[in-house]
Design goal:
Elements (H helix, E strand, L loop, with lengths): L1 E5 L6 H10 L3 E6 L9 E4 L7 H7 L3 E4 L12 H23 L7 E4 L1 E2 L10 E2 L9 H14 L6 E7 L1 E3 L4 H11 L12 E2 L1 E3 H13 L5 E5 L5 E2 H12 L9 H8 L1 H7 L4 E2 L2 H5 L9 H9 L2
Parallel strand pairs: 1-2, 1-4, 2-3, 4-5, 5-8, 6-8, 7-14, 8-12, 9-11
Antiparallel strand pairs: 10-13
Helix pairs in contact: 1-6, 2-3, 3-4, 7-11, 8-9
């Protein structure tokens, strides 16, 4: 199978590329620096414009869109917000435009999304049927999904709403671990906010499942079936790392430093349930947090 990936060298995309190659697929990684692509075949693109890469994408059996700036990398200034939006919309729109050049070609389009769609909803259990929430992230994700939906007539479209992906070599977990190393780990703010997480290996397996399963279509919550409160995450991480986990990080400090990003990402959260994956037969390799953390940290 010929597969094209944007974001194919990233935190999830790099592992996904290796997994697809191990299955014998031909994988093309769209990159601004294709000479630096070490896994898969690098293809030049700028994330906006059409080019030689467009023909590769148009003829692919599966197109996977994972590109987008990290929402938790810093304070959401107006310039930063525009970058978060444009990095997702421009790359998704470019892929859809490329597919339009071969509208009758049969393909699967997996266009990444995020649980931020649901906004801040307290203890409410959120399946794929839950309505959109409010806030910057909800607005961003709705625009992102709508860009992907432009390919519904061109592909079998799958929109996985990813939770926080966990792995020991990067991503959010690596940042979360830092205070624990110094004996200062603990809950963030009240610790009552929900964290909808997923083991990175399961995130990769969901994308593979979406490609393989011809009946898969539409939105799927790509989160583990057991979301946890932040305080329970901290307690479990401390247990796995064998480090203290009782030192809370005051919410007001995070708000002073990170503003709206802290309120929506660090101090807020969603209790997301992967109802469709459960109904349609996907099996999680790491459904429980401690199991996932031991896998991620090799403990």
């Amino acid at each position: 199978m010929k597969i094209v990936i944007s974001g194919g060298s990233g935190f999830i995309g790099g592992v996904l590329t290796k997994a697809l190659l191990s299955r014998g697929h031909e994988v093309f990684v769209l990159s601004r620096n294709p000479d630096k692509v070490r896994t898969g075949r690098g293809v030049q693109w700028d994330g906006r414009s059409q080019g030689v890469w467009s023909e590769v994408a148009a003829s692919a059996d599966a197109v996977i869109s994972l590109a987008g700036e990290n929402v938790g990398a810093g304070r959401w200034t107006e310039n930063r917000k525009q970058l978060l939006i444009s990095s997702r919309l421009n790359s998704t729109n470019a892929l859809v435009t490329a597919m339009k050049s071969a509208p009758s070609h049969r393909r699967t389009f997996v266009s990444a999304s995020a649980v931020g769609y649901y906004g801040l909803r307290g203890d409410e259990e959120l399946t794929e049927e839950a309505p959109r929430g409010s806030g910057f992230l909800a607005d961003l994700v709705e625009k992102w999904e709508n860009a992907g939906r432009a390919a519904e007539s061109l592909s079998r479209l799958v929109l996985p709403r990813f939770g926080v992906a966990l792995a020991g070599d990067g991503g959010a977990l690596q940042k979360m671990m830092l205070p624990f190393h110094f004996g200062m780990g603990g809950p963030i703010g009240s610790g009552r906010q929900w964290l909808s997480w997923i083991d990175r290996e399961d995130a990769v397996r969901i994308v593979e499942w979406a490609i393989d399963n011809q009946s898969a279509r539409g939105v799927y919550n790509a989160t583990a079936p057991n979301p946890v409160r932040n305080r329970d995450f901290a307690r479990t991480l401390g247990k796995v790392m064998r480090r203290p986990s009782f030192m809370p990080t005051p919410g007001f400090v995070l708000e002073l430093v990170f503003g709206q990003m802290a309120r929506e990402v660090l101090l807020g959260g969603q209790r997301v349930i992967p109802a469709r994956l459960a109904r349609e037969g996907f099996t999680f390799a790491y459904p429980n947090l401690e199991q996932s953390l031991r896998h991620a940290l090799k403990r």
